[in-house]
Fold each of these.
Amino acid sequence: MKRIALFLITNIAVMLVLGVVLTLLTSVLGIGHGSVGYLVVLAGVFGFGGSLVSLQMSKWMAKKSMDLQVIDHPQDEQERWLVETVASQAQRAGIKMPEVAIYHGPEMNAFATGPSRNNSLVAVSTGLLYGMNKDEIEAVLAHEVSHVANGDMVTMALMQGVVNTFVIFAARFIAGTVSNVLGGDDEESGEEASYMTYFVVSMVLEILFGMLASVIVMYYSRQREYRADEGGAALAGRHKMIAALERLRNNHESSMPANMAAFGISGKSAMSELLLTHPPLEKRIASLQQG
């Protein structure tokens, strides 16, 4: 319930802010409501704007929604080892030291988030700490540090912004065309019917276009996982990375929110591989073995 409440409150606040930005932009640019120019600005503000705001808030959202325990001062040998391992890997990867955190979860998982390569966070689950040995944990940490070093959070946000903008513009442009063609003769009833047609068609098209766009985003996400696996192998050792992935075969289903699960070592299941954020473990292991 806490995650849902935080998600709703945050998204309402973001929508209000973006609404104000849209009003100011269209006013300054002198763009009239209902024009193609207005639609382009609207799609850009809510498509790109939403993704970029989410990126900037990603660390804060992760800490609040998952009750992360950030390790500011290590309390025991395990926490000290985690911080030192990430620090060593970050230095070799050429990035600023990420924050390191632990969260409670039965699954063996970890994720990286943050608005940039030099402002990031790496978190691991208690299930991973108790379910893997140090070599395997080191490989998982290296995988997450590689996500940060590769700039995956920024790239994913930009890609999501592009597809969101396309979905919003295309759906509303087509819906506007359809509603104008099917508008009634009577002015009052025609306007009401035209509005309802626009609303229904735009909602349906946003869902359909959104599903198609997700296939593109998920494809990139899977390719990114292969690169992070290779980065993890380079930082921790190929045999350790393979061993960590082998261990994940007996993992629990990820309980992380979708926006963070995409950057985890282990993803969620789906009806089709086209909708997976992570490639099947068998393919990831085979890729490392062939490398």
Amino acid sequence: MQLDTYGQQTRVLSQGANRVLRNTYLLLALSMVPTVAGALIGVQMQFSFLAGSPLVSFLLFMGISFAFFYGIEKNKNSGVGVALLLAFTFFMGLMLSRILQVALGFSNGGSMIALAGGGTAAIFATMAGIASVSKRDFSNMGKFLTVGLVVVLIAMVANIFLQMPVLQLVISAVVVLLFSGYILYDISNIVQGGETNYVTATLAVYLDIYNVFVSLLHLIMSFTGERD
């Protein structure tokens, strides 16, 4: 009887995790629409977010982002949370337009953006596949990833003042590795039943993908960019 009850509980948990994962993927796909729209509008408008003041720009960006995070988390169980998430992804699309403008200044800009997109998709598919198929719990990665994120943020702020191209390349490479790990961690957290809200889960995975794409594009531009 106890084994029967345990089996039923396991099935219920598994069904719940699958539902959250499915809804996360659906909302993640939807979130790409405002992201692309924001990026296209930003490129057309030559959008620049306080480019002359990198530190102020960074602090303002972080402030707006955390305001969105708070609002999304506060309303994650309602349609307001979904609306805020989509508004945030539009904002992130606008922010993305800056690096896209730089990329399009190269003669091979379009192919570099496509390569970064393909690379990001391959990384996501691989990490999500491992997290979904493997029965291993990757939650023990959390502390390591958090420490890595803090170190990266400190390095990014430092490089605002240092302006060292080599350090920026190192940061970009570390970010690709770090957020690839976060994809594995976040998808595993959903599969294992640790995350039960698909809005929160979508926000986490979206940020993982976004950071991988931006850093991968920066690396590709640095090594393969061709001027006219």
Amino acid sequence: MAEDPRYHAPMPDSQLPEHPHPRAHLALLILLAAALLFGLWGVWTVVGARGGEAATVGSELDGLRQQVATLARSDQVSREANQDLQGTLAERDEEVSALRADVAFYERLVGSTSQRRGLTVHGLRLQPQGEGAWHFTATLTQTLNRAAVSRGRLTLAVEGSRNGSLERLEWSDLRPQDDAMGAEYSFKYFQQLEGDILLPEGFTPLRVHVRLAPVGAPAVDGSFPWADAAGDVAPRSSPDA
């Protein structure tokens, strides 16, 4: 059987498949690489800008935190200074009030229109010292005989309750170890006599009695409610019944 000459005849050049030129491949690769680099540059630019903005915001936040801390500290210092000032003013007010009270007392005592009185306990003040101890300040006056000097001894007695029963503590009970005869005084117009007493545990004081035993003269007594004597203003005495 004769072969078909169509199967062995060479194909004309115009019918062969065309292959791309190597330079076209290179140009395509360069174009792809350029596009990739451009995309990476765009991403880097955006990330860098966002990073710069974040750093700026962080710096601003740090600055604001520092300002808040500084203002808070300044406010604290101002508050402390204001409290100190208020305390100082309160102390000055107390000193002024005490001085005014002293001036009024001196005017009543030695003024030309003051009433002359014999030896008396003008006032008594009690201040707690802790653990049953109390510090007393007794103001003694005498204007009846302004040329004379009053001398004698002062003693205290305290009435109160303990274990549901009324009880009276004498000077020897309040100061069992010293000054058994009383605290000495000596003055011409007035004197503030100070000392300490000790109350036993469980004793509730109600009233304090003051006795002045002048040399060569009858004793002088005065009494004060304990609550008044232990207050801020020393009360004036009232005669014992």
